[in-house]
Amino acid sequence: MSSAVTSRTRILPDSRTILIWWSSLLVAIVLACGTARATPELGAFVGRYTGEAEVEQLDGSIEERDLSVTIAESYKGFVVEWSTAIRRADGREKTKNYKIEFIPSEREGVFAAAMQTNVFGHTVQMNPMKGEPFVWARIIGDTLTVFSLHVAENGDYLMQQYDRTLAEGGLTLEFSLHRNGLPSHTVETFLSRAP
């Protein structure tokens, strides 16, 4: 009676296949880590800035505003927090505060706003068709720009643009508001870097 011997030969991948696999894994890890960080240019913007501006209203009156902005790095990108205190001629004061985290997008130098959390715990953009602002940021050279698009119920839109450009001792702020593509008003001022 002959006995059948079954031989099991294990075929191992060659060293070239292993090298390609590990190299691909390393490249994927480096790319993933690179997109999770904010751009190197962001470091120059990090800080707290304060200033004042005079804004002419449609009726010709002037409103004084106290402005502040803080730009800080976050785990996934960066946070821009700004405040505007409006001082009216009759002594009333109104303050608006905003805080938005921005995370890298697929486009270099362009950042998506992470303004709300979905059911899976991920931060996502807001929906302008529900009356929420659609916000994003970009860095080009020495200018960090934040855009905010608001869509009204009738389909009209407002586009706000905050250009914060590095300058000696702080930032130059240029704010513009457009309604349906037409300029509505602008504000330009200097914000000093706080110590």
Give the radius of gyration.
26 Å
Uncertain segments? 21-38
Given the helix and strand composition, which structural class is it? Answer: mainly beta
How much strand content do the residues show? over 45%
Order of helices and strands: HEEEEEEEEEEEE
General description of the model:
The chain has 195 residues and is mainly β. The protein has a single domain, classed as Calycin beta-barrel core domain (Lipocalin, Beta Barrel), CATH 2.40.128. The chain is built from one helix and twelve strands, in the order H-E-E-E-E-E-E-E-E-E-E-E-E. The termini are far apart. 11% of the residues are buried.
Notable traits:
10-stranded antiparallel barrel; Lipocalin; mainly beta; 12 strands; 195 residues
Question: What does the secondary structure layout of this molecule look like, with pairings?
Answer:
Elements: H1 15-36, E1 47-56, E2 62-73, E3 78-87, E4 93-104, E5 110-113, E6 116-117, E7 123-124, E8 134-140, E9 143-151, E10 157-167, E11 170-179, E12 182-193
Antiparallel strand pairs: 1-2, 1-12, 2-3, 3-4, 4-5, 5-8, 6-7, 8-9, 9-10, 10-11, 11-12
How would you sum up this structure in a few lines?
This protein has 195 residues and is mostly beta strands.
